[in-house]
Amino acid sequence: MSASDLSQMGIASVAKKVNDDGHTVIEKCPVGDVEYAFYHSAATELKQAGIATPTLWSSDATMRKLTLEFIPHPVEQSFVASDNAIRMLGRLHRYPVNSAWRYHTHQWSASALQKSLLLLAIPEKCAQQLRRFQQCSDVLFSGQGLVSGDSNAGNWGRRENGEWVLFDWERFGQGSPGIDLAPLIKGMGTKQTFIDLAERYCQLSGQHNVHDLAREIAIAKAWIVTEVIVLLDARQKRAFPLYLNWYQEHLPEWLNDTVKML
């Protein structure tokens, strides 16, 4: 499984339908304020900058419903860290922030960390190591660059012409590129995979220090643990035991090895 996967955790219902024009569409309802605003403001502008998102066919403000283009071809986890994805994310991260757009506020609060630690019930040494990651996490949220906030494989697709498209923008916000790069790596990843991805991103985007970015990817991986566990518990998702068991098995060794990057 991909422990960094934030898909299937939203509150909106998503359905595939055929509309009156014969197009297969996606109906998503009710969407949050950030995603609803995204498709009515940022999406068109970002598309012109080479950041492909689903076409908005129609919307209903009262129901908070979006009718979106259906993207037919999924992207497997093993292919999501391709140059296509990295280049598109790089364009997003370099795009100027518009103060008029609505953003999700990304943060790793001490209370959220504590809640995740209670749920994870990992050994105290591991808990202390995860606290160290949280204490270093301001670097993820202090940057002013745009981020999708949810770039896992489940939120990528390909059109019939092969064009890559990124959807599910309810976590559209600002922060470090590491927030979007961490989910491209399967599972928790390793120090070397973080360095390798940081090097590729820097080569393709022409910016950022490799060492600092690799560290930010590692911190983002740790932060996602809290995000996933707290969300699954709060929304009473059936996948909670699966993720909990996976983290309890894999986190201790990962933390012990990766904490050295801080």
Q: Quick gist of this model?
A:
Pfam families: APH (PF01636). With 262 residues, this protein is an alpha+beta fold.
Which characteristics define this entry?
4-stranded antiparallel β-sheet; 262 residues; globular; Aminoglycoside_PTrfase; Aminoglycoside 3'-phosphotransferase, Chain: A, domain 2; alpha+beta; single chain
Explain the overall architecture:
This protein is of the alpha+beta class and 262 residues long. It contains 10 helices and 9 strands. It has a single domain, classed as Alpha-Beta Complex (Aminoglycoside 3'-phosphotransferase, Chain: A, domain 2). The strands form 3 sheets. A 4-stranded antiparallel beta sheet has the order 1-2-4-3, with helices on one face. Strands 5-7-8 form a 3-stranded antiparallel beta sheet, with no helix packed on it. Strands 6-9 form a two-stranded antiparallel sheet. β3 and β4 form a beta hairpin. The longest helix has 25 residues. The radius of gyration is 18 Å and the shape is globular.
Query: Helicity range of the residues?
Result: 40-55%
The CATH C-level class name = Alpha Beta
**Principal-axis shape:** globular
> What's the overall average pLDDT, rounded?
93
Low-confidence stretches: 1-7
Q: How many DSSP helices? A: 10
Q: Which homologous superfamily in CATH is the superfamily?
A: Aminoglycoside phosphotransferase (APH), C-terminal lobe
Blueprint of the fold:
Elements: E1 13-18, E2 24-29, H1 33-40, H2 42-48, E3 56-60, E4 65-69, E5 73-74, H3 83-94, H4 110-120, H5 124-135, H6 138-141, E6 146-147, E7 156-158, E8 164-166, E9 173-174, H7 178-181, H8 191-205, H9 210-234, H10 240-258
Antiparallel strand pairs: 1-2, 2-4, 3-4, 5-7, 6-9, 7-8
Helix pairs in contact: 3-8, 4-9, 5-10, 8-9, 9-10
